[in-house]
């Protein structure tokens, strides 16, 4: 098997998570600070995918609690299509990321991670929570 890359798209930062080669465990990887240029940001995500040997991107789809798609979800779906166009060799799909940030936040609070430090890692931890949920659903 090959690795999968989880992508949590935020307005200011993009959280990245990576699966192990057996696609059993997701781990936080990195946070990309938004550059203000979507093409630069997309290339940064794709560069990480290629450097890590990922063949699949799983992009978080921020649905409402009722499952509705609002502006952020439509933007995420547009990013999925743009990434597919830029990297036809990769499998790119959207996956429901409801409550992943809340779960990540709770996990960091329970781990006594300081507020300043939480802000630095929350996006990649949320990406890992989302990717782990996707991995679990693949079994």
Automatic annotation (TrEMBL):
Listed Gene3D superfamilies: YqgF/RNase H-like domain (3.30.420.140)
Note whether Cell wall biogenesis/degradation occurs among the keywords.
no
Q: What SUPFAM superfamilies does the database record attribute to this sequence?
A: Ribonuclease H-like (SSF53098)
> Which positions fall inside the YqgF/RNase H-like domain?
2-104
Q: Which GO terms describe its molecular function?
A: hydrolase activity; nuclease activity
Ordered alphabetically, the record's keywords are:
Cytoplasm, Hydrolase, Nuclease, Ribosome biogenesis
Q: Mind listing the GO biological process terms from this record?
A: rRNA 5'-end processing
Q: What SMART domains does the database record attribute to this sequence?
A: YqgFc
> What is a single cellular component term in the Gene Ontology annotation?
cytosol
User: Per its UniProt record, what Pfam families does this chain match?
Assistant: RuvX
Q: What is this protein called?
A: Unannotated protein
């Amino acid at each position: 098997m090959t690795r999968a890359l989880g992508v949590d798209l935020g307005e200011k930062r993009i959280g990245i998570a990576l699966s192990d080669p057996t696609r059993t465990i997701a781990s936080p990887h990195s946070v990309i600070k938004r550059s203000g240029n979507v093409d630069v940001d997309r290339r940064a995500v794709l560069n990480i995918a290629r450097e890590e040997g990922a063949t699949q991107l799983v992009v978080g789809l921020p649905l409402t609690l009722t499952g509705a798609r609002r502006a952020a979800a439509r933007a995420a779906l547009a990013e999925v299509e743009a990434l597919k166009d830029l990297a036809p060799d990769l499998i790119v799909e959207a996956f429901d990321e409801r409550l992943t940030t809340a779960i990540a936040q709770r996990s960091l609070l329970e781990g006594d991670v300081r507020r300043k430090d939480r802000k630095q890692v929350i996006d990649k931890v949320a990406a890992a929570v989302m990717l782990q949920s996707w991995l679990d659903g693949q079994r």
